[in-house]
Amino acid sequence: MDGPIIDLGKAANWKVIRKAKKRGYITSEELDRLLPPETATPQQVDDVVNQLTEAGIALVEVEEHLGSHIDPPANSNEPPD
Question: Quick check: is 72 in a domain?
Answer without folding.
Answer: no
